[in-house]
Amino acid sequence: MYGFIKTAAVTPKIFTADCRGNAERVGEAVLTASMQGVRFAVCSELCITGSACGDLFYQSSLLAAALDGLRSVAGVNEKNKTVAVVGLPIEKNGRLYNCAAVIYSGKILGVTAQAFPRDTHFAPCETEKGTINICGTEVPFGTKLIFRHEYEKNFCFAIEIGSDFWSVSPPSAQAAQNGAVIIACPCADFDSAGRYEKCYEYVEVHSERIKAGFVFVNSSRYESVSDRMRSGCVLIAECGSVLRNREQLLSTVITDIDTEYCVYKRLGDPSFVPRFNNLTVLFGEEDDGARTFELNRSYGEYPFVPWSDYKLSARCGEFLHLQARAIASRMRHLKTEKIVLGLSGGQDSALALFAASEAFKITERDPKNIIAVTMPCFGTSEATLAVAKELAAITGVTLKEIDITESVLRHFNDIGHPPNLHDLTFENAQARERTQVLMDIAGMHGTFMLGTGDMSELALGFTTYGGDHMSMFNVNASVPKTLIKHLLLYAAENHSRELTDAVGKILAVPASPELLPQGTGKETEKTIGPYVLHDFFLHHMIRRGASKEKILFLACETFAEKYSKDEIEKWLVIFMRRFFANQFKRSCMPDGPAVGEMSLSPRGGFYMPADASGIEWS
């Protein structure tokens, strides 16, 4: 469903050379996983025999028992449609190979052999695409096998065993280029201090590089500890993010790998072209995926906000530093000592002010050369005007207060617009007048006007064309609304108690453009919807390539306790309609540094024609 493949990393208790017992426990674990809806189960390296058998690997008794164990696992799972990867040693033509057999519906589909073994008991496999007679059946054998479901093209996987993962040219990279979307990595990695962290980091980086799901399954801790220990480490990753991990507990770990997302990530990467001659093994039946699906992973409500306090603090520091660097670089390029920005007393303009202040600090410039302009009009509240003045005083910038009421009224008279008609023209005239004032002041000082609009507003088109939509450099262009409050708190807490108190006042007031007379205006989120939902929609549509139906499914799973399905669907329809209708604003958006993980700039962030139809997303 929606490209999710429910995947399990299986590590039952494995005892050295106990093939019968190991096979029984492996078979039961795979069967139990299947009953939980698992479609792809990966067991650890050499799980039938155990990985620490040493010279016992040469014994015909052990090798025969391993094959019997493989038959046993296949027999137990004969009636289920779960694909299982099971490790065992196999002798072929007088050479011993470290192998992983693939089982489906009681049948052995093929056997992948290790290419670069570190254990001297095993020979490196030089056969890329051959066959082997195993358990009375001739099946594909070699190092370059890809297994693909005949009716679900994204359910496509390959296997790399143990030390192949750490090699200079891991087979998984070649398999991914040839279409493998999930990599199974049965392993028997030794345990030592710091080893888990190293594996975690490498799996993250490698799964991002090959843009795949990655299932790293290490040997059971019950294996022999005569000379070395096994960690029992399990990591299931997807395109650079570890979805599930287990460092100590012995159990089966289950999650859902989003194969649609992996394929989406590859579509724009020119390196993903078939360059290697892999053998594709087909499997599967048309109704394999026709089972009750329950999502076994969680998505954060705030995809742009790190989950841990430590990572959030680090991310906020990076954002502000990058914004400040961008402003400083633009000032050096234009050879100017000043900048101009509008200061409304809201979140976006406060963030732009903090970024500008940081830029002046790192370049050792006088903050008084930051000209902050507040322009009260019909809808400006006393509270936001007071906060704007307070921010300017605390940061030491120059504040200009220009009441634009009379200018806007004259404009209404010029165009014949009734001043008591509170329509879109009434609102837009104020936004455009403010932009004109700011740009003219910037011209007077021979500098540029700093924009303040954020990425979430750009996505929704919640900005006045030629008004706050326009600036000479928009420092917030790639900052999502749901992250802004954290950036404000971080900047304030690293400045002073006074600034923290001022930011608290800003965050206590619901977002509003304040363009309608006091008492008649609506809060932004009551008009266009909650930003927490819109940022969630934006992330999954642009960053993960999800369809409208999939976004709705994920949002309902994620926000089940906060919003009903009808509410989520209502705001999703509005998001999609506004996103496609307002591309013309993004097509000519001003320069803005992509300091975040995504940008909607047509010059390198996200491009689509302004007249693109949104019918497939409606």
Structural class: alpha/beta
Q: What can be said about the biggest beta sheet? A: 8 strands, mixed
Largest sheet, spatial ordering of strands:
6-7-5-4-3-2-1-16
Strand content: 15-25%
- Shape assignment: elongated
Helix content: 25-40%
Report the radius of gyration as a whole number of Å: 30 Å
User: In total, how many beta strands?
Assistant: 22
Determine the mean pLDDT. 93
**What is the count of helical runs?**
18
Uncertain residue ranges: none
**In whole angstroms, how far apart are the ends?**
20 Å
Oligomeric organization of the protein chains: single chain
Notes on the structure:
- The chain has 618 residues and is an alpha/beta fold.
- It has 18 helices and 22 strands.
- It has helices at residues 19-35, 60-76, 171-177, 195-210, 259-267, 309-334, 347-362, 382-395, 405-415, 424-444, 455-460, 481-493, 497-508, 524-528, 531-543, 548-558, 565-581, 583-587; strands at residues 4-10, 40-43, 83-92, 95-104, 107-113, 130-134, 137-142, 145-149, 156-159, 182-186, 190-191, 213-217, 229-230, 234-238, 241-246, 253-258, 279-283, 339-342, 370-374, 398-401, 448-451, 473-474.
- The strands form four sheets. Strands 6-7-5-4-3-2-1-16 form an eight-stranded mixed sheet. A seven-stranded mixed sheet has the order 15-14-12-10-9-8-17, with helices on one face. It has a five-stranded parallel sheet with strand order 20-19-18-21-22, with helices on both faces.
- β2 (40-43), α2 (60-76) and β3 (83-92) form a beta-alpha-beta unit.
- The model has no long low-confidence stretch (mean pLDDT 93).
